[in-house]
Specification:
Blueprint (H helix, E strand, L loop, with lengths): L13 E4 L1 H18 L2 E2 L9 H8 L4 E5 L2 H9 L3 E8 L5 H10 L3 E5 L2 H9 L8 E8 L7 E2 L3 H12 L3 E9 L9 H24 L6 E5 L1 H5 L10 E2 L9 H6 L9 E11 L4 E4 L3 H4 L13 E2 L5 E6 L4 E5 L14 E5 L3 H5 L1
């Protein structure tokens, strides 16, 4: 990691962060949900750094979310607590989760099956501690989670509260279906539907005598344009917002001015016979997530809407014009281009 170094002296390809934009994005998200009276539990998987986490948490080093146990251990070692492992409990990692639960004041796990609950029941925590469990709910994302409308979901919630050594902390949904949205109206429609589904489930739990103190939804699009109903939640869990990227721009979560990251690359080849530039940046630096379906191919080349990243191998990128002929004099060998990645998590991971 380099600070204060001239961009022209950096070896490429290189992932860069505009720290002021990063901090502004954090501040805006914090203010947005402070005004709504909703706790923010930021996701760490976007950057995986202590520096970024300290900015996101205001150096409290509490109330964060991770997607892997490697991340959980990393932040625990850095003095973080109140960590939510936002992944349906893997049975081969129960012992690791138990160690973190016994080590930290608060380590939360997700489950979405009776079998997972039975795994927790078989591994009682030491020091009279209880497993802190969130019930993962699928509100239309179609990935993990129980469906709130299924009778089995209510029964699983009841079983969690009946199980000795296990505490139901709350219900949790990821509105990842927001990533198919186009514009604020569609983003907010998904956010509203997800929020209402979670709140309705919590109400039905209360009517059935099941204590469920917390409700949480999250995705960067929904939290960038929250709806009024989200004020009834106890917390939200976005993550990508600190960086944003070309995907978020396309969805409508942000503008280019909000994107804090660029991948710098150098022109390493001129090939007039195929009307193409070659750059020293391939899929290991950018990922193939967009499938090349953007108007500008696999990513956005800042300041050059007339250029398209048409193909990538491991260490090379192929750039062609959107139309017409490339003026190679504008892009001498060794010159630097600034690329906005499609999905920054794929790049940063």
């Amino acid at each position: 990691m380099s600070f204060g170094q001239s961009l022209t002296t950096l070896h490429t390809p290189v992932f860069t962060v505009d720290l002021q934009t990063f901090k502004r994005n954090v501040s805006q998200m914090n203010q947005r949900f402070k005004a709504m009276g909703v706790k923010l539990r930021p996701h760490m998987k976007t950057h995986k750094t202590v520096q970024g986490a300290d900015i996101m948490t205001g150096r409290t080093r509490r109330c964060i979310e991770v997607s892997t146990l490697a991340e959980a251990h990393f932040y625990a070692d850095a003095g973080y607590d109140d960590i939510l492992y936002a992944y349906p409990l893997p049975f081969d990692k129960v012992e690791d989760c138990a160690a973190l639960s016994e080590r930290l004041e608060m380590f939360h796990v997700l489950i979405d099956s009776q079998a997972a609950l039975e795994e927790l029941s078989k591994r009682r925590l030491k020091a009279d501690k209880s497993w802190l469990v969130w019930l993962k709910v699928d509100c239309g994302n179609g990935r993990a989670g129980v469906r709130s409308e299924d009778p089995e979901s209510m029964e699983l919630a009841k079983n969690i509260t009946r199980t000795e050594g296990v505490e139901l902390v709350g219900v949790y949904a990821h509105c990842g279906n927001n990533y198919y949205s186009k514009g604020v109206q569609e983003i907010q429609a998904v956010a509203k539907a997800t929020t209402n589904a979670i709140l309705d489930f919590v109400d039905r739990l209360k009517e059935a005598g099941v204590k469920c103190p917390n409700s949480s939804i999250g995705s960067t699009p929904s939290c960038s344009h929250p709806v009024a109903e989200m004020a009834k939640l106890t917390e939200v869990h976005p993550g990508n917002y600190v960086f944003y990227d070309a995907q978020q721009m396309g969805i409508g979560s942000c503008t280019m001015e909000d994107v804090a990251v660029r991948v710098l690359t150098r022109v390493v080849g001129h090939y007039p016979h195929r009307n193409e530039l070659l750059i020293d940046c391939g899929w290991t630096a950018l990922s193939l997530h967009s499938l090349g379906k953007l108007p500008t191919g696999y990513a956005v080349i800042e300041g050059h809407p007339d250029l398209k990243l048409t193909a990538m191998s491991q260490e090379h990128g192929h750039i062609q014009p959107v139309s017409g002929e490339i003026d190679f004099k504008r892009f001498p060998l060794g010159s630097i281009l600034f690329i906005i990645p499609y999905h920054v998590r794929c790049r940063k991971a």
